[in-house]
Amino acid sequence: MTTESATTMATDAVGDHAGHPLLELSGLHTQFATRDGMVQAVHGVDLTVPAGKTVCIVGESGCGKSVTARSVLGLVDHPGHVNAGHVWWNSPTLGHVDLAAMDPKGADIRHVRAQEIGMVFQEPIASLSPMYTVGAQLGEMLRLHQGMTKQQARERAVELLTRVGIPKAHTRVDAYPWQMSGGMCQRVMIAMALAGDPTLLIADEPTTALDVTIQARILDLFRELQDETGMSVLFITHDLGVVAEIADEVAVMYLGRVVEQGTVEEIFENPRHPYTRALMGSIPTLGHTRRSAGRLSTIRGTVPHGAHRPTGCSFHPRCDVAVAGLCEVTAPRTLDDGASLIECHRWDPEALGSEVELGLPTLRREATPTTAERAHAENVTSATGNNLTESAPLLEVREVSMRFPVRSGFLNRHRADVHALDGVSLSIRPGETLGLVGESGCGKTTLGRCIVRAEDPTEGQILYSGSDDAVDLAGLHGGDLRSHQREVRMIFQDPFSSLNPRMTLGQIIGEPLVTHRVATGSELQDRVAQMLRRVGLSPDYMDRYPHAFSGGQRQRVNIARALILEPKLVVADEAVSALDVSVRAQILNLLQDLQDELDLTYLFISHDLSVVQSVCDRVAVMYLGKVVEVADTQQVFDDPQHPYTEALLSAVPIADPARRGEGRRIRLSDDLPDPIDRPAGCFFHTRCRHAVAGLCDGAPPALVPTADVVDGQDDFGRHRTACLRHSELELTGIAGTQEADR
Amino acid sequence: MLTFIGRRLLYMVPTLILISIVAFAIIQLPPGDYITTMIAQMEADGQSMDAATIEALRDRYGLDQPFYVQYWTWISNIVFHGDFGHSFQWNRPVGYLLGSTLPFTMLLTFSTLLFTWAIAFPIGIFSAVKQYSIGDYVATTIAFLGVAIPNFLLALALMYIALTVFGQPVGGLFSDEYASAPWSFGKFLDLLGHLWIPMVVLGTAGTAGLVRVLRANLLDELRKPYVVAARAHGLTERRILLKYPLRVAVNPFLSTIGWVLPALVSGEIIVSQVLSLPTTGPLLLRALRSQDMYLAGAIILIVSVLTVVGTLLSDILLARLDPRVRLGAR
Amino acid sequence: MTHHTIPEAGNPATAAPEALTTHEDIDQPPVRDKDRASQWRLVWWRFRSHRLAMIGLAGLIIFYSVALFAPFLAPYSSSTFDSDYIYAPPQQLHLVSDGDWGLHVYGYELEQDPDTFALTHTENPDDRIDLGFFVQGDPYTVIGPVTWDRHLIGPTDAEDPVYLLGADRLGRDLFSMIIHGTRISMTIGLVGVALAFGLGVTLGGISGYVGGRTDTLIQRAVEFFMSLPTLPLWLGLAAALPRDWGTTQRYFAITIILALVAWTDLARVVRGRFLSLRTEEFVVSARLDGARGRRVIFRHMLPSFSSHLIASLTLSIPAMILAETSLSFLGLGLRAPTISWGVLLEQAQNFRVLQDAPWLLLPGLAVVLAVLSLNFVGDGLRDAADPYRS
Questions:
Q1: Are C268 and C190 part of one and the same domain?
Q2: Confidence band of C29 (pLDDT split at 50, 70, 90)
Q3: Which of B231, B243, B329 lies nearest to residue A75, judging by beta carbons?
Q4: Neighbours of A734 (CB within 10 A)
Q5: Which runs of consecutive H residues, i.e. helices, occur in chain B?
């Protein structure tokens, strides 16, 4: 199961009882009573966590990762319960015990929870009571579990908060959770988990709700703490990049079972299970731009609901290499070669017989493109780029600002403004995809909504040059606005709330045709059916309601609705952020195909830099309502000219354990400045490592072209940045890190 | 916090002015006035009144002046002189009548409020924690019934039971021997012995409502992630329940003072009528029936003001207890 | 089952561009009823699984049927009385006596106290009164000029006294009276709620949709109304009604008074929904789809909370019924000759009377049952109102 060295380490780290690993799940089953009957969320999980190691459980949503984690500590909520299996825990005080056999409300399990196994959750702010200060909540545990006095507990709380990297801990200790950012709250949660000096920390998607910059810092914290204390970590995540960053061992889960398990190098370099391979293939990785990477590979379909578990191997309906007559009939057994573990018939000589060849062709991880390939890719880009440069921009955003008033005080007077957008200027050329990135709250979504006029900008112009002369969308009202809104459409982020649940797909997709009086009757039906086919849905779905569909399918409906008026510009606001990786790849591919087919121009808003890199021609980086850098994708990622872009890039976890970064980390502090009371000068100077007092806090920098000019690039495509020091700084992008690694 | 209270107090002023206008408007609404009623009564008794006397009476009470003049006379006397006017029917100052009944009304209302909480709190918690248990079903059923039974019906039923089972009529707040006796310990005990019936009758609906509110709130809170997190930190179930979710669930509970108080005051009117208690309720009813406008107006005004003040108190209490309200969570 | 989930297209990575027009990547789930079920069907399915709500619904159907067919269901008309039987106790129903089958009751033996003239009634087993179905009795109007004289149940001889639930102060049959009272008591809530609905939806809708200053103004009004203690307000207004108003006038005046107090809650519900829906993504996208104000409201927003609205409406009827009962009980609401449960209960105000004739409290039982039914249905509706919440 574990490697030889891991076992030895385990023995060294704790007084190992009879050679047992720290935590061992065997045959764990957890089921939930639902309307559709009993659902087996965890279906026989075997998993070992050696002492001092980080084990990651990875898989798509609905695979039972979180339930497995919660089952360990008996925290599965009603109506779920552990119905079979063992959770063997090598307790320093209780000996070798089965946590699953303990009364989930009893004293023993409480002792384990308080002193031996810490746990951190996905939603940090909601995981803390809003009624007490963080100091009070942390102190309570210290008083109860460590027998401290109130004074001692407070001092220790400040100590712990400092240790998890909370600045000014002695004042923060008196803050309420809702007065702190998500990242800060997650640090508090970690401090609480550490309060009892646990030997194991279970982290259930601890960074999923956080920005990538904050995520990087939290992952750093996990590593530091582990180095200091030697504790083990069981880390649940859906993000392979995160896995590659921190895991020692990886368990891949699918529909309640661990289908493959091994060291992080094994899994990433030589994934054997078809599901693991498919997962790896469907994530865009940094370093692969749009033109070089081509289409993403996908896994068809979605994870089925636990109530409809397929027979045989539960992955077979989505598997490209399923063996007919075998995979859908018998469940694969667990194959354990000592170093790794797999459940797949293709690797089982006994099951396979002689007709089919054993194993899968070795998957060579696609290396980062060679210089030649890159040059080729760039040629392609500039070839298309040449086309692009000739045409005038389709959309030009000029000095757009958006302010929301804040009222407070005695008579609810207008006190200040939240500056969501502050003089943003951008251009999009016909046929291109412009990426818009930045941390949450930077104004990227607001900008997208202003462009489609879901919001009315406070000032500025949004010049749109469709078929006629340029019109200012910001100044249009009523019918004029509506007729232009036909050509500028939006795809929303949330596939669930953006579709009216009370209308059928036909009504939803046909709505724009009705309101714009484009088509009625059978013509409308035909066009909707055609559109459905275009986005990969069956026209039979027309009379069904959105609740019948999964997130990915709903997002296709959203796309169909946006495209049915044959628009020119589509604003995709985090259009794939809510989707699982395999489905995300399907939708990204669909968007690209439709762009080629229908000559669309995209404004692609996303917080995910790897996705942006794989689909966008150009990228604009936003910070606190301002564009701080804009350039061709390649330039932004290889040669960033703004320290914020550099920091953002370095925070992105890279799905390659071999490149686990040394020295490339630039960490930003967790706290974004208040958008009501913004810093003077360059807004970024409070978090910037290159900031110079007297310069950066003086006059605000303008967005200016940089010195480097790429051949054939007109003024429009110039690399621009809003950094006063950009000409003197040597900033590293993704390419730079690759060089550094070699 | 001070800003908060200051703002709330400021908001109260226009509300109170409006309430006083509405109260006065209501008592002015019926066609005719007390004199008309008086004439009608005298005629029914076979007597008559000459026009000069009528005119003199009208003049004396200012009844022939326009609405706003009457209102101003009325309200300025109350605000500046504490003079609530004169009751035609009782031929006494309204202030005197209020003084003899209002303390009992307030005693009844507040003891009922305490009773309601004392009962609703444990039942609500039990019901939420032991969801779908037999006890929960019993509590929920009683809560449903409590909301569905009109106060006066419950009062009548209790009276009937007291009469047939215990063989003694209930009603009033004192036994005959204490009714006009000076205050003594014995009288106090006698009061307590009488107080429980109106308390139970009045409290039932409120208790039932509160049990439902508390149960629903607590169930919501128990599903929040911080409860799981607290459990993961090794806290005992009792502590998890009593410290974290309850603190949040109690907030709406506190804000119910806002509606429990007016409901109690309203309920008191009808229950007191049935149980013939010496409170403001029956006084208001008689005053309304006979168009004794200053008395009725004063009672409506005072009850409304009490309600508004009660709401204010509950808001302040809420802000005191909930940091999100106090510090203005975004 | 499995063949449904096997995709038609091959490996999508190698799929040709024209694969776009096939069902790429999409598994075809089997068609379930649920997929094609509209909002109301989903609400109904959810409601159906709520046992108490179904009991309440059955109760409601019974109550409103009684209200609809009251003259036919009641043995006597609302004006039939017999002063010989003032406060006559309920008769017991018999199925068989002396080996003779058939539904029957015993007649009363009357005794008058020579001093107090009080009547006492005792059942006389020798005086058998047969009951029958569809018997001839007091004539009543069915619709317009059409009259009928059949009653579902009653004495075979219309002259015989039958008092299944006893008699009241005037010697009327309480059972018939309760049935006749159902009409007023059950409809006053409906009419009152309809009025409150009009006020609440209009003002709440304006408040939520227009926002800004209008919203603030309406909200202040709502807060003001909510800060008033309701009963004194009702009492004051009810007392102000002219005494010479007829029954119909009084009925509508009372409903208006009830609605005046009840609209605030509805206005708040509507406003809250409007506000939260206004920023809901599907509403924003409907606007971006080119839908104009009216279409956004009536096609996208209103259907989204109509089920919540119906739940709130249902839950506000009981308060109206209780209020009418209370007002009438105090003599300030409806008055005889109007018959409502509250008017009937007014007779029970004196507890000396109650001691002799406790059955006068029975209309109260009808009130409790009606209110319970409405509350059950309302709660069930509220739980089922959003079928898309898992």
A1: yes
A2: low
A3: B231
A4: 26
A5: 2-28, 34-44, 51-61, 67-81, 94-129, 134-148, 151-165, 176-179, 185-222, 225-232, 237-255, 257-275, 280-289, 293-321, 323-327
Domain count, chain C: 2
Any A CB within 8 A of C8 CB: no
What phi and psi values does residue C100 have, to the nearest 5 degrees? -100, 120
Residues C356 and C236 in one domain: yes
C240: in domain = yes
Q: Under CATH, which number does the domain A3-124+199-268 receive? A: 3.40.50.300
Average pLDDT over chain A reads 84
Number of domains chain B contains? 1
Report CB contact under 8 Å: A597, C38: no
pTM score, whole prediction:
0.81
Q: Residue A84 and residue C255: Cα distance in Å, rounded? A: 62
Centroid of chain to Cα A363: 25
Q: Which chains would you list as touching B if contact means 3+ CB atom pairs under 8 Å?
A: A, C
Looking at the structure, tell me whether residues C280 and C306 fall in a common domain. yes
- B chain contacts of residue C227, beta-carbon cutoff 8 Å: 15, 19, 262, 304, 307-308, 311
pLDDT at site A297: 76
Residue C101 resides in a domain: yes
Residues of A in contact with C290 (CB under 8 A): 482, 485-486, 512, 515-516
Last residue of a domain, one of C113, C145, C171: C171
Closest alpha carbon to C313 in C228, C374, C373, C368: C374
**Cα-based torsion angle of the residue sequence A468, A469, A473, A478 in order, rounded to the nearest 10 degrees:** -50
- Residue A261's pLDDT is 92
Identify whether B120 is part of a domain.
Answer: yes
Residue C347 within a domain: yes
Partner B contacted by C358 (CB < 8 A) = yes
Inside any domain, residue B296: yes
**Co-location of C219 and C282 in the same domain:** yes
Smallest CA–CA distance, residue A6 to chain B, in Å, is 28
How distant, in Å, are the alpha carbons of B220, C127, C161 from that of C123?
57, 8, 11
Strands A433-437 and A601-605: parallel
CA distance C71 to C378: 29
**Domains of chain A by residue range:** 3-124+199-268, 296-367
Residues 41-70 of A with CB under 8 A from C: none
Q: Are residues C303 and C245 in the same domain?
A: yes
pLDDT tops 90 at residue C127: no
* pLDDT category of residue A573 using cuts at 50, 70 and 90: very high
CB of C213 within 8 Å of any CB in chain A?
A: no
Last residue of a domain, one of C151, C171, C191: C171
Domain with B260 in it: 103-329
Looking at the fold, whether C262 and C126 belong to one and the same domain comes out as no
Cis before C337 (ω within 30): yes
pLDDT at A5 over 60: no
- Please give the span between the terminal C-alpha atoms of chain A, in angstroms, as a whole number: 32
Verify whether the Cβ–Cβ distance C13 to A561 is below 8 Å: no
Please report, for the domain that includes residue B229, its CATH number. 1.10.3720.10
Q: List helix spans (H) across C21-122.
A: 39-48, 51-68, 70-73
B32, part of any domain: no
Highest mean pLDDT among A500-509, B194-203, B316-325, C9-18: A500-509
How far from chain centre, in Å, is Cα B94? 20
